[in-house]
Amino acid sequence: MQKKFISNLALMVLLNLLVKPIAIFGIDAEVQNIVGDDEYGIYFSLLNFSFLFNILLDFGINNFTTKNVAQNPNVASKYLAKILAFRLVLFGLYAVISYGIAYLLNWNSREIYLLSFLVLNQFIITLISYARSHFGGLLMFKTDAIISILDRFLLIIFCGILIYTPFTSAPLKIEWFIWIQTLCYGITLVVAAIMLFSKFGVPKMKFSPAFSYNIIKKSFPYALLIFLMMIYTRIDSVMVERMHIDGKAQAGFYAKGFRLLNAFFMFAMIFSSLLFPILSKMFKQKENVTPLLSTAAKLLIGGALLIGIVSFFNSEYILNSIYTSDNSESKLPFQLLMFSFIGMCSTIVFGTCLTAKGDMKFLNIISAIGIVINISINSFLIPKYGATGAALATVITQSLISLIQFIYSTYVLKIKFTVLAVGQFLIFIASLFTLCFYVRADSGLELFGLCSAGVIGMMLFKLIDLKNLKLIFKSGE
Fold first, then answer.
1. Burial class (CB in 10 A: 0-12, 13-18, 19+), 181
2. Residue 201's domain spans which residues?
3. How many structural domains is the chain composed of?
4. d(C-alpha 337, C-alpha 395), whole Å
5. Is residue 448 assigned to a domain?
6. Which residues, 6+ apart, have CB-to-CB distance to 398 below 8 Å?
7. Count of other CB atoms within 10 angstroms of residue 142
8. What's the rounded Cα separation, in Å, for the pair 70 and 41?
9. Which residue has the higher pLDDT, 168 or 460?
10. 26-36 pLDDT, tens per residue?
11. pLDDT tens figures, 464-473
């Protein structure tokens, strides 16, 4: 299982490295440079608002499907038609609630218009994710990897033509960007559907109230967890835009800091998409998950520490390399958000493990506590400190949640740490912190050098254990 995890992790990381950085920094960041912080801030706030209730589109069905397909492959196609019909009903509910709350927040007609496309995008994304949940459950990671980057690949082509060629002399509008996203998601859905139906046959949709109720009942713990986590990770930008006196600009400043965090988070989530089905199967077969969990934790958390520390000390250079406007208001939010990435990565490893194990009650309680902490801190800090206050709330929330999950996981799974392993981790952190404190990057080459030194440090301190990786591939385990 470790071999399967690592080999497919390498494939998915490679494909994502080839596509998503270009989409994020060559397209998305350039769109913000062109339209400005205020205009992009509106889009960013609406985008995150559309995420808040998208659990109503899924209701935990994707995680539930991945886990059950991984554990019982023969039932993969049994419920396909009924679930697709059920999703249409969920889309209606999601749209009604999203529009209702949007009107209560007093967004104007243009903002509601933009939200309409973002609501549609969320529905399409959910359908794509549902197809991918089957591929992941069947451990068809190569197919999953292709689908995972297809929409970004198309976005690069279509938006790249508008931004970097003389296709039109008219200035780019945020509406165009959103419309192109809808087109890219739509094409990706068609491709995913063809792959899914070629595997399981074309379903004849039929809505079944009894079946839908049964799915809700079984999926509810997963749905609740996703909803709670979405609230404390996505509500920040909405609160900034609504609560601060200069909300649209502050949301734009926050978006500049959040973009790089989100880029790295996308890569980190590859671990989750691979770990969840593999751990689910291992728990069912009562295999020892500690070696795999240890390998994943060292790679991901060690990498997060490297990214967080390097980004903190070189924030000004990184922001100025991406954005053309003044970045002084985004510097501190960016630094804080990149530190929150460490806690987010810990949650990906240990939260995914607990989800695969079925400890949903604990995870939901902790996530509910996270919402209370996040909203309370945001409400206190945002009116005065704007984007910086929201970023600080994110650091505190993510750190506390991840720490609690880590402690609980080590207790439940009886994970033991040697003095040597802890010492290696601490020395790595201290060494990297010292290096970045005294050596700052003034060029891309110097930044690459710092990151390379960090990777070498991960190898020296066994966070990337080359000997262990070699043994895994030789043994075929």
1. buried
2. 2-416
3. 1
4. 6
5. no
6. 233, 340, 343, 344, 347
7. 12
8. 40
9. 460
10. 899 999 999 88
11. 766 655 544 4
